[in-house]
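Forum: Protein Structure Q&A
Topic: Joint prediction for protein chains with partners

I've read a bunch of threads here and the consensus seems to be that you should model interacting components together rather than docking separate models afterwards. I'd like to see that in practice. Below is the full input, 669 residues plus whatever partners are listed. Could one of the regulars post the assembled result?
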Amino acid sequence: MVTLLYDKTWQGLLTAIFDIYDRKFSLASIDYTERFQPDVFAKHVEVITDDIKASRVMAGLQRKASAEAVKNIYAAFLSELPGIENTILAYARLILSSNQSIEHAYGHSAVLKVSQVARMVHREKHRMEAFIRFKLTSDNLFYAAIEPDFNVIPLILTHFRRRYADQRWLIYDLKRKYGIYYNLLTVEEITIDFNQNAGEATTNVFHEDEDLYQTLWKDYFKSVNIGARKNTRLHLRHVPKRYWKHLTEKLL
Amino acid sequence: MSERVREKLNILADAAKYDVSCSSSGSNRKNNNKGLGDTGGGICHTYTEDGRCVSLLKILLTNFCIYDCAYCVTRKSNDIKRAAFTVQEVVDLTMNFYRRNYIEGLFLSSGIFKNADYTMERLVQVAKKLRTEHKFNGYIHLKSIPGASDELMHEAGLYADRLSINIEIPTESGLKLLAPEKNRKDMIAPMNYLKEEIIAKKEEKRLFKKAPMFAPAGQSTQMIIGAGKETDRDIMYTADKFYRGFQLKRVYYSGYVPISNDSRLPGLGSSVPMVRENRLYQTDWLMRFYGFNVRELLNDANPHLDLEIDPKLGWALRNLNCFPIDINKADLHLILRVPGIGMQSAHKIISARKFHKLSWEHLKKIGVALNRAKYFIICNSNEMERRDLTETKIRQFILAGSESKYLKNSIQQLSLF
Ligand code: SF4
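Posted by a regular:
Agreed with the consensus. Here's the joint model:
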């Protein structure tokens, strides 16, 4: 058994799969460097992320599987669930070694798992598209902090770029400590050192109108309620409590 | 300005909330002009505490009204605070809410002040300003004012995604009783005009890609349930007429929320007919997607829907001679008529039975509600319901087996739609 250590990137994972084929490891598992607990008895090799290798694996998958299946693998990867790399490896092996479509062969545990996890990730994507709340800063940036269950920023990027094409915006994942910033032309990935800005950040970070619109939105949310129809259980199913922290209308 | 706007919003959102339609889908406006927004998915950005989807800023332009419809909080004789937004205020609210990702767009309705055209003109101005001055590509639903002129309806169609006129009271006699100053003709005329325009503009769009969009999400209407004395048959026959005659996208049914002690109406404190509302939606679904004719579900012998059981089961019990149906042979349209089999399950049955004959086990996996379906089907198994059961017996068995579920259903019902 050999463990391949990759850098937690998608390209890195694809490179790891390439290496496993290239070096003919029949018993291999994939882990990432930070999490890996070295074990004196086990062999491990470092994967050096390589775009050419990665794109060859990608091309192989695309040749044999539908766009839908490849999309699901990527979504499963974004779940960051422990061990998902090995599920993806098993799934990739199935795809690459089979002559017919195995995407619906849910008898294989890897196929079932990837499709289930992908569904969870896509649900989180849709939730973020709905629940993100921008706040306007004093320098006219629409800023939203998020803490999604999964790393869905790559999946929501296009939606926000298309929709908010005429305003500068920044969506920041506080859990994963990175965000995407749209500068009216392109979207780029950024990281922020919040501590450094903390001193000045206390005063006037937000635009003078920001408070008003938050208040108006909260008022609106209250007034659309029809008391005679209250149904808390249904409400909670749609808007689970863990999302409330960043939902303007749920803050007092 | 802020306190004043706050007060207006509270008044004018509160008055608008009884319109239940909140759909923001069915249109496909792209953000090609580097403006703000697009439409398509119809995202629910949040949910009210009663579990309804919030996707639009739903407000009245004003709650001043020259009419006195008994069932409406905005009616002239009601002693409430009145307010009116300016066109610019609505535009600002919409833009600012949209930019913060609170909403998919605007649903603007209004009390009628001065006259129909005067009011409609202002609604159109809001939409026009949003589209032309602010390059707003989000969703716009305008309520059309009964009696508005064709010219204004035309302009409305150019800027809005959806237009609606609420019929409110399902029968003409009911309307006469509760809103004597209104008449059905004024509601139907703009609907008719829009129907023709939508068809014509669609044709144009097919020939010339560049032709402007015209109300791409079509028309809808709403009826209030339980304000008057209408039967479910009256309501659904009216709905059917509108679906066919005006090609409406949706008819909404809104359980009457008591708002006054007018003796013509259910008094304050009477409960909102939520189960009935749900049964009507189910009937609507059966008409539109399951191939049922409204006359099969409601007729002289059965003017009301059964509140205890869903309308499909009700129909099946009255028509036991059509059953049992062989799951492994029957056509899709017959399978769709089996209680406990939904649209998805029916399609799964059709594709799965190509590979092997289906048994109870298979059907269960597919998601069929066997507790209901088992009385109406045969499949690949030796265990069949052989007793020659009567309508009453089957009904008893099903209700006994799922009593708690039916209770739960009445609470959860809104999640269905
Ligand atoms: S015309 Fe419309 S707003 Fe005015 S009272 Fe009648 S239903 Fe209400």
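The first helix of chain B runs from residue 2 to 14.
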